[in-house]
Description:
By secondary structure, the protein is α+β, with helices and mostly antiparallel strands. This is LTD domain-containing protein.
Amino acid sequence: MFLSQALDKRCNCGVSPAYFKDPAVACQGPQLVFTAFLTARSTEQLSSLLEAFSLLIESKEVLHFGKWNGTAVKACLRDANMTDRPPGTPVVVPERTTEATPLTELLINEVNSDNPGGREDTEYIELFYPGEAPFALQGYWLVLYNGKNNLAYKVINLSGYRTDERGYFLVGSTGVTPKPQIVLPDNTIQNGLDAVALYRSNPNATYKMNMPLTNVGLVDALVYKARGSDNADKLLAVLAPGQRVLLEDDSHSSQDESLSRCYSLRPRDHSSFQVTEMTPSQENACPPPGSNSTEETPQNHSVVINELGMANHTILYRFIELKGNPGVSLKGYTLMFFSGHNAIPYSTIHLQGTFGSNGLFLILPEGQSKTIKPHEQRVMPSVWSNPSLQEVTHSVALSRHALNGTMEEHLKDVAVYTWETGASQAHPRLSEPIHFVSREGGRPLSLSRCPSCDKIYAVSDPTPASENHCPQESLFLNLEICLLTPNCSMWPQNPQMLASLQQALVRSMEESCFCGICQCYLHGVTFTCLNSTLKVSGQVWARSPEQRQRLVQWHSHFSTSPHPFAVDGKPLKANAACASLGKTAQRSEASFQAWEIALIVVGSIFLVLLLAGTAFYCIKRRPQNYTTIELNDRCEFMADF
Length: 641
């Protein structure tokens, strides 16, 4: 778990514990050696992972394994083979191991054999090729066995097909999304006791309907059962010797589930599979290694409020998005909603379900969409009704087992916001900063968790079930503002007044552009005082080119506006001459750089022409080489004459 988090922190490439296959540990003296196969979805992701891994082992960062701590030792990992590997193939770390490295092989990756109720229209079998994709399936056969008579009830020839660019191949019913490459009639895949086997063509075997069990040409197999099924000894003896039959446990969650490959790329290894949420043609929603996906989430899992989708005065939220580890259950977690400074929540939601493969979980009101997607929970819209139109401050708190103790002991995360510009900066009960969200403009906005923010959350565009839209450093705007004030020297010495000044600037930006902006967008703001002029310097980060253009227009209008600028009742006036001077200096510097580049280019062209002319002149002036002219003896010449 910690290793995947450490790698993802360095590469930001979406790595999870499911990327580590066949993990194992062994002791070598005082050192603990961890070995695993590191997989990737693409060549680009593999390169990012390898670079992040190199940075990790070179660092002195302490790694946490449960109650134990350790530091990566360079000498231990110096023999790791991290080069000259085909794109998409497993990376062995370290190279020396007691077991032979398995060859890259087509595998059974996920099986959903039973659907809730009686519809049976979203059954599927997912194959996965961990090497370079797309991969041709020429010569492969998929055989479905009936556990009652141990005969094949369905045989599918895969020749002529290929996996998609991520290595996935889907065989399933009509209701599966995305549409399978091979569509089966509904209720084709039996619920168990049964088996799925993958074969490669072999001259000693013929794959056909009603064929008996065989391991000739067998590549991979999965034997599964329903509750109370008959004995599976014969299926296991032929298809998966030494393995235990798998159970697609329908008590895993209220949603549909599947048997997913999580911990190993070894074929015919049932210990690699876990019961998870169904993820056709997607990365499997695997729980962290060593945990059971059906068990309650341990206390140390990081679950946070990731985004609040704002609505209107009467219904406060369009959606709420949580973030956590992929595949982790939300059992035992509760969302509580507060109004004003009340200590008692006006509404509570007990969460159900698990995080998706992207680590996100959505709570939506009923009726917003007809289709319920995986990793979502629906609630009645009345749950989010504003209990008091007079209150302008609202809070959302995420807790765990809050009913068994005080809220502070079990509080996991809190988001506090206000509609009012003059509200206090911190909540008196929750000790959290209060974020201002403007209602002006009428456009939908979200309060999104952003790593670039000192105050955690930023006002942004709504992005449910996808990456938050946060301010970016690459879209910065230099903030150069001069303000005239009678007593300039008091400003840099008063932090409270400077904080009020930043709030006033943000409020001015929002009133001008209606583009959803807050103090999180300000970076590196400094204040200097010269006589009666207070100079504000820093940067404003935008989240889109359009928002940056609006901020540029605000900056231009603000610097030339004749109207006073009030901060806590104190009038300030923009000094246009100071702002123009800064702009002129910037233009002069840019102009000088342009002339400098132009002179370099012209000089280079002149030098090339001069060298060419000199070479041509030297060639013309050089005397001809007569050493090849034949000279005859005079006597021979007279004799010839």
